[in-house]
Design a protein that fits this description.
single chain, alpha+beta, 5 helices, about 55% helix
């Protein structure tokens, strides 16, 4: 049995929102709309965030109109 980890699906949600709205969504738009720190957004998008505050999760859920379970998944590492 392999090790498990939590993975952020920020990029997937960004892509889905862009397709739904039929427009390109730059990270600058997400920063402006959510007020999340640029470093936090970058770490989450690149899968390098160790901890994420609930206020950040709340802002992303509001922006993407999703549940926390849509933003994060628990997967087995290869």
């Amino acid at each position: 049995m392999g090790e498990w980890m939590i993975q952020c699906r920020l990029r997937e949600l960004k892509g889905a929102k862009a397709r739904q709205e039929r427009r390109r969504i730059p990270y600058a738009d997400i920063l402006a709309q959510t007020g999340v720190n640029k470093n936090t957004l970058t770490r989450l998008a690149n899968g390098r965030a160790g901890m994420v505050g609930l206020s950040v999760v709340d802002r992303f859920c509001a922006y993407f109109n999703c549940q926390p379970g849509d933003l994060f998944i628990y997967i087995e590492q290869e």
